[in-house]
Design brief:
The protein is mainly alpha-helical. Among the domains are: 92 residues, no CATH class; 57 residues, no CATH class. The chain has eight helices and four strands; from the N terminus they run αββαββαααααα. Strands 1-2 form a two-stranded antiparallel ribbon. A two-stranded antiparallel sheet has the order 3-4. Strand 3 and strand 4 form a beta hairpin. Helix 3 runs parallel beside helix 4, helix 5 packs parallel to helix 6 and helix 6 runs parallel beside helix 7.
Length: 225
């Protein structure tokens, strides 16, 4: 019996000495990073793509823009509040905003809008300022036909005279009602064209003589055309 037990012990020691026990080394887990764009994952954070942050902007409403103009200062050059309103009126081509401009600068607002829109009909909304608006538009656009829309005679004559001086068109002088402005118009045309025949159309004798002398003096020859 003792010999059997001894053999079993020896056999057990043999098994323990000959059996190889293997253990697996634990695997190292890689850390994943989520980049700032919220989509890209990397194992090295330096590999994240560059992200440009776009600033958030909001367009001001018309009322908010108009509120900015309130209480702007006035200097010797004029009212910045009026200038602000005129700029917004021009931006939106909105003639109704000219009513926010002070009365002293309202005419300029309508003039600006007519020029920006390239439309003389804007002046019809200018009320008591419409004649000056038409005259200014005729001057800036070179469209003498706009002078026809002016109701005040002296202002209309001035419009025709200025247009004739710029264009050299003597037919515009014929539309002038006021005698002295018509004489000025023909004198200007004569000087521009060096044609004494336009001096003959001048009614005032002294101004006619001055016109003839000026033209003859320019040419050095009497009757020069």
């Amino acid at each position: 019996m003792k010999s059997i037990v001894a053999l079993l012990c020896v056999f057990g020691l043999f098994l323990l000495g000959c059996t190889q026990v293997t253990t697996e080394a634990p695997q190292t887990q890689q850390i994943q990073y989520v980049c700032a764009d919220g989509r890209t994952t990397v194992t090295n954070i330096s590999l994240c793509p560059a992200v440009t942050v776009q600033p958030t902007t909001r367009t001001l409403t018309l009322d908010e823009q108009l509120n900015i103009c309130i209480d702007m200062p006035t200097t010797q050059q004029g009212s910045f509040e009026d200038i602000c309103y005129m700029m917004i009126a021009a931006k939106y081509e909105n003639t109704s905003l000219c009513r926010k401009v002070s009365t002293s600068a309202r005419s300029q607002c309508y003039n600006t809008l007519a020029e920006v829109k390239e439309d003389a009909t804007v002046c019809a909304e200018a009320g008591t300022y419409k004649d000056s608006c038409y005259q200014q538009y005729a001057q800036t656009s070179g469209d003498s036909s706009v002078c026809d829309k002016i109701t005040e005679v002296s202002q209309k004559d001035s419009c025709y005279s200025n247009s004739a001086s710029r264009s050299g068109d003597p037919t515009l002088c014929e539309k002038i009602k006021t005698s002295y402005q018509k004489d000025d118009c023909y004198s200007s045309i004569a000087s521009r064209t060096r044609d004494i025949t336009y001096c003959d159309k001048i009614v005032d004798s002294n101004r006619k003589q001055n016109c003839l002398q000026n033209i003859q003096g320019q040419s050095g020859t009497p009757g020069y055309k």
